[in-house]
Structure formats: structure tokens, C-alpha cells
């Protein structure tokens, strides 16, 4: 995969809602060229699918992250799954309360063993409106649906739809996430769990794909060109947090 496609892929991972015009301007190519390259990434199976991630807080629920040695697979429900080279699998799970979330982790532990990591961020469940529900329901059925099509379905202006989608994204309640075949793409994904959130946010700003954090700790999922780049970023992060945990991902999925 050439360098332009790598850059397009990183921009889509950071924000799949980025317009082709925006991407084209950033990369100095035409919007039709961007459109062609994205279509090719999809048709070649480099982008396997587009998932609409809904933060459980949107539904008034809670979520957390737990990592286990991958001697066994968890066959129960999960939101996201990251399989790592360290023989570790990270699961994002949800429940109706923090206590239920801890109970679910205990149930997983009975089957999968002692967790390698548990992270339940500070979170504030949301009370969605009827409009929120309608919007999200339509997008779940078709994550790539255009704003104008949504507006026709719920009888509001496309401007209102775009503004509300951006609001929900900015609040981290939803996000379009491309599920990429990392091997075909020739890129590397890695996660860092650290208690030094501010430093991590600055250090990974150019390569960060996903951040889950509060004022105590955070998980930063990043994209790199190769293992050498991962090592360079990890070494730099450990100058500020010697206990920062590294997990190199070879496959991931969202349910």
C-alpha cells in the first residue's frame, strides 16, 4: 500500500466522517482521487467493514475494558475485541451499572483466568431524546448512509442532521470505525495503557486512532508504520511513565 493510501487510512481511522474534500485538501489531491482510493480500499478488503460504535453511555449504560491471556476465547457478548501479540485479548464490555460490570468481569475471569488489565473509566450516562434514538437507529442499520437520506427519513433538514451527528461524535457517544485488515494494509496498531494521560495525548496526537481516558488513566490506541516506530513511541512514553503497558494488536473487531 502506498504512502497516500496509508495517510487516507489513518485519517479515516481518526474520523471516518471526514469529508473527501477535507482529506483531499490535507493531502494535496483531488476529491475524486480520494473517492477512488477509498473505494479501492473497500473493494480490496483492506477496509473490511464500517461499524457504527455506540458508546454504552448513550443508552444510560456503563462500559469498561478488560484484558486476558488468550488461552481461550470469550464467547459471550462484547462491544469490541482487540487481539494482541502479547497473547492477550482486550475486550470492551457493557452493563447497566458499575456493579454489574464488575460482576461480568468476575464471570469472565472464571472462564478466562486472572485479568491482565481492568480499566473502568469515570463516565456519565446520557439520557437520549427521541430524536437521538431515531438518528442512531437509522445509522445502525446503514452506517454509511448520507445525511440527506437521514433527513428525508426523519423529516428534518440535512443541516440539523449533520450538526447533531457532529454533536454526538464530539461527546464521544458515537463514531464510525473502519475495521481494517492490518496485514493487508501493512500498518501496525498498538495500545498504551498509562496513568499519564496528558503526556500520552500530546505524544500520540499525530497517530492516535482512539482514546478512552479520564483524569486517572487512559488507553490510547494508535497506528504506526512498523514495529520500529512502535518501539520509538513506547520508549518515549516510558520516559514519563515507566509502568505504561504496551499491547500490539494484530486483529480487531466491533460487534
Automatic annotation (TrEMBL):
The keyword Lyase does not apply. The lineage of its organism: Archaea, Thermoproteota, Thermoprotei, Sulfolobales, Sulfolobaceae. The keyword Transcription applies. GO terms for molecular function: sequence-specific DNA binding. Transmembrane segments: none annotated. Keywords: DNA-binding, Transcription, Transcription regulation. PROSITE patterns: HTH_ASNC_2. This is AsnC family transcriptional regulator. Coiled coil: none annotated. Pfam families: HTH_24 (PF13412). It comes from the Archaea. Residues 1-62 form the HTH asnC-type domain.
